[in-house]
């Protein structure tokens, strides 16, 4: 489908890529990873044809259609949301117009046997075939479905695109690309402007995408759920792993250890060889050996090792002063902007030490609630901030809050008071602002640097309530992990607005869902919430289907044969699921027995001949545990599915 052949790209004497080759096959979903600056975005632009390589080539098989979503793009304006999305159907619109013209021509002709008439019929047939292949009749429905999946409401369809923020307009561009049904899809950080529900919708879409996908993302869960293969760019070369991201991280670590060992061995050989050359360079009796070793060094393919970027944010929040047991309490809280009501009748209580998440679609009020809690916005109803609560706030809109005219050092210096002033440079150093970096103007900082500076400001006072609105935006995976660990160790209360499931997983113990003007409390972690939401959605779907079925029975004549066929089909599905459950139960029982046997042996490893340094043994052991957990989850899903099928059968 896509072939990168011996590609080299040079910038000012520096080779960003050197002799790179790889192929993307039909229906593959591939993650493209590497350090910042490694060339991931540049590789997408090369494949998309936006830039040309210095040498080598990028070839696409046949006359395939390619869709490319860059991180930054020119956003269209002037149309309604739906009309802008329908621009994806330019070919369908053109074909429909030609079909109409040809049909009119044919209807007025009577020369049924002429070559011209037969040519018109043939052309009309070809156009109708193409129209069918492009699903022309369902184009409008697909446009609406895609926009709804990406978070738009039906009432948004007739609004001008200019009324939406840049993030929402990027969603329209993504919708247009998806609706074009490209055979090759290139996506550069597509989740940057999406909420959790829209990310999940996009995941499901991409899982079922009938084409080739190349994806750049810093969302670990998104990569794991979508991709099957990972291509890493490192030091101008590519390394291909036929596994998703998390497994790639493990394999990369093993590869690096092997590379380091080979590098050290080669460096020792080079050093020994050079010593030999220097020692015997001027001895005639050793001239042949010296020349041989000189030639060996010249021919040697030097092993390069990518320097590990061990610079990570070193965050440890100050000890939180003790607050009252109730930190935030809302009763009948409501907020409107002019005639638009964001939410109403919100009731919730956040207690000391809790870590909670605000989740929901963009525009449902998560940031608004955060700003109300920190005292930036007025409200209706009752909001109580607990005794001795001090609030540290990380705002999503750092561009507006940070003063662009100040330097990094001045930004911190103006906030710091007391003894903490003596530690300003240490704090900035912990956030990777070292040396001359502290004299940079805020105006020239990248998105990630702005986020780190805003986080550094939170270290200047011992807050006991942190309100963090999208704190992981622009942070790489390593920095996100460090921030997550710091929050896990923090002994205060935390409210986090985020759509990053991997970041929230294991961090929060309560989720507040903002949806349709309401705030709903869900006890448990983020994946508990998402699993329940999925079940709720299915129940709602079944209720609609039952209602539709009831209507059909009322309006249509009784059809015993149709009813019997429905029962027969449900019985077939029930038997299939029961067989799957029986098979899983046997596999689970077998795995439990194997793990129990291994656990018994581990109580006395020496007696059973187990070497505790045997990496393969423990890899196999952990693999069995993961396999068991997966099968247990599959069993639960199938049991739920079986229960629903039986309920449907009983209703017939």
TrEMBL record:
InterPro entries, sorted: AAA+_ATPase, ABC_tran_Xtn, ABC_transporter-like_ATP-bd, ABC_transporter-like_CS, ABCF_ATPase, P-loop_NTPase
Residues in ABC transporter domain copies: 2-260, 328-541
PROSITE patterns xrefs: ABC_TRANSPORTER_1, ABC_TRANSPORTER_2
Domain of life where this protein originates: Bacteria
Compositionally skewed regions (Polar residues) per UniProt: 545-558
The entry's keywords: ATP-binding, Nucleotide-binding, Repeat
Region (Disordered): 544-563
Molecular-function GO terms, alphabetical: ATP binding; ATP hydrolysis activity
Family of the protein in this entry: Belongs to the ABC transporter superfamily. ABCF family. YbiT subfamily.
Protein name in the entry: Probable ATP-binding protein YbiT
Organism name: Tenuifilum thalassicum
């Amino acid at each position: 489908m896509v072939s990168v052949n011996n590609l080299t790209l040079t910038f000012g004497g520096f080779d960003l890529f050197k002799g790179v080759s790889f192929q993307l096959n039909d229906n593959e979903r591939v993650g493209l990873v590497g350090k910042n600056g490694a060339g991931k975005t540049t590789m997408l632009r090369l494949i998309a044809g936006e830039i040309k390589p210095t040498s080598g080539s990028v070839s696409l098989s046949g006359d395939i259609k390619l869709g490319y979503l860059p991180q930054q793009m020119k956003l269209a304006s002037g149309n309604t949301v739906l009309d802008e999305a329908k621009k994806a159907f330019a070919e369908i619109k053109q074909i429909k117009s030609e079909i109409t013209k040809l049909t009119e021509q044919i209807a007025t002709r009577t020369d049924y046997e002429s070559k011209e008439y037969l040519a018109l019929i043939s052309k009309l047939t070809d156009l109708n075939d193409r129209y069918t292949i492009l699903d022309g009749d369902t184009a409008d429905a697909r446009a609406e479905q895609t926009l709804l999946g990406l978070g738009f409401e039906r009432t948004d369809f007739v609004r001008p695109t200019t009324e939406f923020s840049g993030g929402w307009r990027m969603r329209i561009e993504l919708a247009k690309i998806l609706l074009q049904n490209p055979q090759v899809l290139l996506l550069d950080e597509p989740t940057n402007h999406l909420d959790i529900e829209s990310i999940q919708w996009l995941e499901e879409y991409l899982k079922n995408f009938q084409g080739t996908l190349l994806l750049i993302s810093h969302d670990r869960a998104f990569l794991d759920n979508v991709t099957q293969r990972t291509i890493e760019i490192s030091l101008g070369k590519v390394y291909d792993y036929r596994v998703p991201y998390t497994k790639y991280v493990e394999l990369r670590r093993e590869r690096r250890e092997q590379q380091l060992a080979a590098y050290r061995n080669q460096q020792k050989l080079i050093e020994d060889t050079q010593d030999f050359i220097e020692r015997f360079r001027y001895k005639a009796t050793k001239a042949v050996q010296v020349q041989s070793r000189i030639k060996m060094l010249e021919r040697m393919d030097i092993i390069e090792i990518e320097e590990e970027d061990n610079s990570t944010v070193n965050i440890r929040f100050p000890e939180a002063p003790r607050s009252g047991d109730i930190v935030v309490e809302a009763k009948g809280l409501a907020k409107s902007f002019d005639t638009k009501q964001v939410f109403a009748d919100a009731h919730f209580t956040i207690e000391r030490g809790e870590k909670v998440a605000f989740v929901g679609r963009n525009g449902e009020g998560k940031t608004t609630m955060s700003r109300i809690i920190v005292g930036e916005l007025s409200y209706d109803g009752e909001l109580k901030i607990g005794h001795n609560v001090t609030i540290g706030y990380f705002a999503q809109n750092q561009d507006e809050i940070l003063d662009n005219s100040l330097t990094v050092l001045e930004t911190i210096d103006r906030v710091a008071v007391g003894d903490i002033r003596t530690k300003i440079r240490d704090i900035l150093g912990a956030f990777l602002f070292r040396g001359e970096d502290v004299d940079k103007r805020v105006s020239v900082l990248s998105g990630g640097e702005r986020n780190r500076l805003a986080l550094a400001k939170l270290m200047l006072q011992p807050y006991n309530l942190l309100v963090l609105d999208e704190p992981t935006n622009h942070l790489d995976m390593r920095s996100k992990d460090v921030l997550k660990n710091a929050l896990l160790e923090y002994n205060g209360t935390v409210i986090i607005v985020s759509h990053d499931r991997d970041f929230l997983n294991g961090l929060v113990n309560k989720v507040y869902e903002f949806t349709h003007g309401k705030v709903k409390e869900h006890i448990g972690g983020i994946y508990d919430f998402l699993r329940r939401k999925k079940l709720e959605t299915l129940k709602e779907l079944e209720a609609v289907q039952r209602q539709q079925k009831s209507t059909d029975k009322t309006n249509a004549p009784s059809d015993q044969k149709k009813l019997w066929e429905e029962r027969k089909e449900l019985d077939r599905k029930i038997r299939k699921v029961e067989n799957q459950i029986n098979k899983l139960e046997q596999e689970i029982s077998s795995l439990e027995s194997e793990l129990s046997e291994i656990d018994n042996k581990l109580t006395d490893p020496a007696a059973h001949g187990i070497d505790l340094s045997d990496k393969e043994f423990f890899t196999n052991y952990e693999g069995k545990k993961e396999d068991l957990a997966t099968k247990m989850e599959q069993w639960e899903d199938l049991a739920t599915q079986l229960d629903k099928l039986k309920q449907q059968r009983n209703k017939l």
